[in-house]
Design brief:
Strand order of the largest sheet: 4-6-7-9-8
Shape: rod-shaped
Structural class: alpha+beta
CATH architecture of the largest domain: Orthogonal Bundle
Mean pLDDT: 78
Oligomer: single chain
Helix content: 55-70%
Order of helices and strands: HEEHHHHHHHHHHHEHEEHEEHEE
CATH topology of the largest domain: Arp2/3 complex 21 kDa subunit ARPC3
Number of domains: 3
Strand content: 5-15%
Low-confidence stretches: 492-502
Largest sheet: 5 strands, mixed
Number of strands: 9
Distance between the termini: 82 Å
CATH class of the largest domain: Mainly Alpha
Radius of gyration: 52 Å
Number of helices: 15
Length: about 550
């Protein structure tokens, strides 16, 4: 149904265009009998103004309808009527007319798709002028000679020779007239009522074009009237209205040329004003689009901020719940684990001798597992407490803290082959004393643990000052690790070594990271297999 309606609409448009094309051509043909004529050395030069009608069709709708207009409208025969004395040479203006219509019809079609200079209406007119001159200079004389050989049947009173100067005059006259017609058509197609007649697209910026055009043309005619009145009254000494009531050829030509000139000037002005209005309309549209875009962005930002706030609140709630869960689990697991450890110890003490070796080994395994689980829950509890803890900052001497922690860890390790070395200058910083001591304890404990296979354990604690923070580091000479796994070390329960080789829960470094992040710092670790490892962390100056 919709397809049939669309097809019928296209048929109606095509029929309208064909009808208008033929009608415009026919009126153009009728208009040749009303053309202005000028005599030059016995030859008549005609100003066939009606040729603008088929040209308007070609500029509006393209080649096909332009050709229909000049052929079915009979405009193509005008050279044989007005210039019948040219004989066979009348074919030259007929060919030129076809070429004129075809070139500008082609340009009209191309300009709908491209803004290239090669399709500009005046560039194409320049191309046409060159072709027209060639046709007149080379073909016109040949056809004039043909008049001597075979006179045409439609007129025997024909010219049989022509001067080159007169031929050039004919060619230039046609070029000038046709260029004027083209400029007039270009101006006419800027007027809204003309565009509506040809069913062309009109814009809001063209609404003032007709008024501007009429104003400029009327101004030009008024100016010409004043000049002619002064000339006739002062120079020719005619009555001020005599020349207007009895216009001579000079007056008619003046009015005609004035009308054409100011019409063309009006076209230039109208095009400029229309483009300015189009730019202003485009700017208003862009401004409106920008305002809408800004409004949308603001709305999106507000919505995004609200969603972020909601998600943050949800995340904080979830984290708090998880930390509370970890705290509860860690705390509540300790009692049954201690009971298991206690009962297994009692069984071994009371019934150890009555049990065989396998049973005693299983009881010892239960005790070891219970101790490990208690240690793990203690570390989990420690991690949970650290996450929920509120910082209580105070000024501390880092070097004293390190020395204290080292002595404690050395005592626990029950070995004397541990050496501590300080590097750099250690400042007094503002941190939570308990938590910072936990950082140092975990760091030095790890350094000792993973270096115990060395004859002498060398622990180096240093400090470097950067642009906005202190960088502390704890370096050991232990077994090290593969750097590609470094990111895993700061996650809970993540370990790179077997429990049988090195005891631990995998929570120590995670606790360090949590504490340092609460102080606004960063943590990272570097190492190399069998070459030791270095733990780094920063404390910003803002905490001093």
């Amino acid at each position: 149904m919709i397809k049939n309606m669309y097809v019928n609409q296209l048929k109606d448009i095509s029929l309208y265009k064909i009808f208008v094309s033929v009608a415009m051509g026919f009126f153009g043909f009728i208009g040749i009998f009303l053309s202005s004529s000028f005599d030059f050395n016995g030859f008549s030069v005609n100003f066939t103004w009606s040729l603008i009608l088929p040209l308007l069709v070609s500029l509006a709708w393209g080649i096909k309808f332009g050709v229909v207009s000049i052929i079915l409208g009979l405009v193509i025969v005008y050279p044989f009527i007005l210039g019948s004395y040219n004989g066979w040479a009348s074919l030259v203006p007929a060919i030129s007319l076809c070429l004129w219509i075809i070139i500008h019809g082609y340009g009209s079609q191309k300009r709908e798709k491209s803004k290239s200079i090669y399709f500009n209406i005046y560039f194409l007119q320049f191309v046409y002028i060159i072709l027209r001159m060639l046709i007149y200079l080379f073909i016109f004389p040949l056809l004039i000679r043909l008049n001597n050989i075979q006179p045409p049947v439609w007129n025997t009173d024909i010219i049989t020779s022509i001067d080159n100067e007169l031929l050039l005059l004919f060619a230039i006259k046609g070029i000038i007239v046709e260029s004027i017609f083209l400029a007039l058509c270009d101006a006419l197609l800027l007027l809204p009522f003309v565009r509506k007649f040809f069913r062309l697209k009109t814009t809001n910026s063209a609404k003032h074009n007709t008024k501007i055009m009429i104003t400029i043309v009327l101004f030009g005619l008024s100016f010409a009237l004043v000049i002619l009145a002064i000339h006739n009254y002062i120079i020719d000494q005619h009555h001020i209205l005599y020349w207007l009531l009895h216009p001579n050829e000079k007056t008619k030509i003046t009015f005609l040329l004035t009308t054409i000139l100011f019409f063309i000037m009006g076209g230039i002005t109208v095009r400029y004003v229309q483009r300015m209005l189009e730019v202003q309309d485009d700017l208003r549209i862009r401004e409106k689009q920008l305002e809408n875009a800004v409004t949308e962005i603001k709305a999106l930002n507000e919505g995004l901020e609200q969603r972020i706030a909601n998600r943050t609140a949800e995340l904080e709630t979830t984290v708090s719940e998880l930390e509370g869960f970890a705290y509860t689990i860690s705390h509540d697991l300790k009692s049954p684990l201690r009971a298991i450890e206690g009962y297994s110890t009692m069984m071994q003490e009371d019934y150890g001798r009555a049990l065989n070796n396998d049973a005693n080994e299983m009881i010892e395994s239960i005790q070891d597992i219970s101790k490990n689980m208690i240690c793990l829950t203690n570390r989990l509890l420690e991690y949970a407490i650290t996450s929920k803890a509120t910082l209580k900052k105070e000024q501390i001497d880092v070097k004293n803290i390190v020395s204290t922690v080292f002595n404690e860890q050395k005592f626990v390790a029950s070995t004397s082959n541990i050496q501590l070395k300080f590097e750099g200058e250690f400042p007094t910083i503002s941190v939570d004393n308990t938590l910072f001591k936990q950082v140092m304890s975990n760091g030095i404990s790890n350094a000792i643990k993973f270096s115990r296979n060395k004859e002498t354990i060398q622990i180096t604690v240093g400090c470097k000052k950067t642009g906005n923070a202190y960088i502390f580091y704890i370096k050991d000479n232990g077994i090290g690790f593969n750097m590609k796994y470094s990111d895993k070390l700061f996650h809970v329960f993540q370990r790179l070594h077997r429990t049988n080789d090195f005891e631990g829960t995998g929570i120590g470094l995670a606790t360090i990271k949590k504490i340092i992040q609460k102080h606004g710092g960063n943590v990272w670790i570097e190492g190399e297999e069998n070459q030791g490892a270095t733990l780094y962390f920063t404390i910003p100056f803002i905490n001093d």
